[in-house]
């Protein structure tokens, strides 16, 4: 972050305040208001943080107008095509692409941490059978804070490293077990001879009664889904992890907070909500009715999988995901999948409608991901857990960056208070 020679001038009641301007390596300049309350006695107001940079970071950059997403400078489409998830994890975590030896070492460390402490099985068993897998994940990941005491001292760099590896490694096991529990099948233990995505698929779909062969096409598609969701700078769940961690809290508990935030339909829950919407539409002839509802101000219905807080152009991940959906469905011999047909026609009609183009509402990453996951055999309730597995690396990388930042402070926003002013307590018999 370099301080610009320019300063923003803010005038309040005839008094002028100079606010330093910082220039990022790429992206809009940032006005530094940290001393504003101290000097001018005012707060700024920005619910939803639409104009607020909450931290400085070197991990991910998004240009929402261009529809560009870079991880450590590398564009997401190149990473999705040429790289794979664990290499992207290394890149996000350590800042550079690994050498072959570094990658081998990293993959081996992740692979050797995939098993859960056996007593954690009791946590799964404590849930009702019909619990949503995200509810189980929030609980079980939070419970990790009670199991891995040798990796919770956040002031120790080595312990931070071990906690990071544990989270990347164990998250697929936790997500797959949440699924197995919900369908009443035995838990399948991870296998060290399989790659990350294949291991996850096997833990979801294998049963002890017969052998399970991972389809390499599905494994590649799952790896690409993981890669496309790996990080997205200061989104709601990542900011939740940063805020929770800013108090120095246990890392596993902080990641559980991120999972809780991701669950919401405006964030990670959108892929489940999107597929449910496509199914509800059912046939292309009903699309105009749903588009009309999405445009109706008095109807809370929104086109799920459309729109994004940052992208005011195509979400670059959606393009790769659409291509992936075509490939997977063709290879599985279900290219005439009715949900995919509805999705394609809906995209076409929405993009031809001024309401969506004027408001810059384009398909986001979740518009097509659910179709692929469904074709793989996962129920809608597992879509957001897959997102949580992917985003864990983003949460951890941002958490590690924050903890190592000498400027780190506890996050403590202020407010525009609109409540009662001072008043005296009224005894109950007088109310
Ligand atoms: N369908 C219909 N109208 C929409 C949609 C949509 N999907 N999204 C936004 N709008 C409209 C709003 O009604 C609003 O209209 P107005 O200005 O006339 O009031 C305008 O577009 C701006 O919408 P906001 O909600 O203010 O935009 P915001 O940036 O806060 O919301 C969000 C972004 C939450 C993603 C929103 O577009 C949405 O709800 N989309 C559907 C859910 C979804 O797909 N979420 C996934 C996000 S990607 C991810 O988490 C990986």
Automatic annotation (TrEMBL):
The active site is at residues 308, 366. InterPro entries: Citrate_synth-like_lrg_a-sub, Citrate_synth-like_sm_a-sub, Citrate_synthase, Citrate_synthase_AS, Citrate_synthase_bac-typ, Citrate_synthase_sf, Citrate_synthase_typ-I. One of its GO terms (biological process) is tricarboxylic acid cycle. Transmembrane segments: none annotated. The keyword Acyltransferase does not apply. Keywords: Transferase, Tricarboxylic acid cycle. GO terms for cellular component: cytoplasm. GO terms for molecular function: citrate synthase activity. It catalyses: oxaloacetate + acetyl-CoA + H2O = citrate + CoA + H(+). Pathway: Carbohydrate metabolism; tricarboxylic acid cycle; isocitrate from oxaloacetate: step 1/2. Belongs to the citrate synthase family. NCBIfam families: cit_synth_I (TIGR01798), PRK05614.1 (NF004126). This is Citrate synthase. It comes from Roseovarius tolerans.
């Amino acid at each position: 972050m370099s301080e610009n020679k320019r300063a923003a001038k803010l005038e309040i009641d005839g008094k002028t305040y100079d606010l330093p301007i910082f220039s990022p390596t790429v992206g809009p300049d940032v006005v530094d208001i940290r001393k504003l309350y101290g000097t001018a006695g005012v707060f700024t107001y920005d619910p939803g943080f639409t104009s607020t940079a909450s931290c400085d970071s070197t991990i991910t950059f998004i240009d929402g107008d261009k529809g560009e997403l870079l991880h450590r400078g590398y564009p997401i489409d190149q990473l999705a095509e040429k790289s794979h998830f664990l290499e992207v994890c290394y890149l996000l975590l350590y800042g550079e692409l690994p050498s072959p030896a570094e990658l081998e070492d990293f993959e081996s460390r992740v692979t050797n941490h995939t098993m859960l402490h056996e007593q954690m099985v009791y946590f799964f068993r404590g849930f009702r059978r019909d619990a949503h897998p995200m509810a189980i994940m929030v609980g079980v990941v939070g419970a990790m804070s009670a199991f891995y005491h040798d990796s919770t001292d956040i002031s120790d760099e080595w312990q931070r490293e071990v906690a990071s590896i544990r989270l990347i490694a164990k998250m697929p096991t936790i997500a797959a077990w949440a699924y197995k529990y919900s369908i009443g099948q035995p838990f399948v233990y991870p296998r060290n001879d399989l790659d990350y995505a294949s291991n996850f698929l096997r833990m979801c779909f294998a049963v002890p009664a017969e052998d399970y062969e991972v389809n390499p096409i599905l494994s590649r598609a799952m790896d690409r889904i993981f890669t496309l969701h790996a990080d997205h700078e200061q989104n709601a769940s990542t900011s939740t992890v940063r805020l929770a961690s800013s108090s120095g809290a246990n890392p596993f508990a902080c990641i559980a907070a991120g999972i809780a935030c991701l669950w919401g339909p405006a964030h990670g829950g959108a892929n489940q909500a999107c597929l449910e919407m496509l199914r509800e539409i059912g046939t292309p002839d009903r699309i105009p009715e749903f588009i009309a509802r999405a445009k109706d101000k008095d109807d809370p219905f929104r086109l799920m999988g459309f729109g994004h807080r940052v992208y005011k152009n195509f979400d670059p991940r959606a393009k790769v995901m659409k291509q992936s959906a075509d490939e997977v469905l063709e290879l599985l011999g279900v290219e005439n999948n009715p949900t995919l047909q509805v999705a394609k026609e809906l995209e076409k009609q929405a993009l031809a409608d001024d309401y969506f183009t004027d408001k810059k509402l384009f398909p986001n990453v979740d518009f097509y991901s659910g179709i692929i996951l469904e074709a793989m055999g996962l129920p809608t309730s597992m879509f957001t857990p897959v997102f949580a597995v992917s985003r864990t690396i983003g949460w951890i990388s941002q958490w590690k960056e924050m903890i190592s930042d000498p400027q780190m402070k506890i996050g403590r926003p202020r407010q525009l208070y609109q409540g009662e002013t001072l008043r005296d307590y009224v005894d109950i018999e007088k109310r």
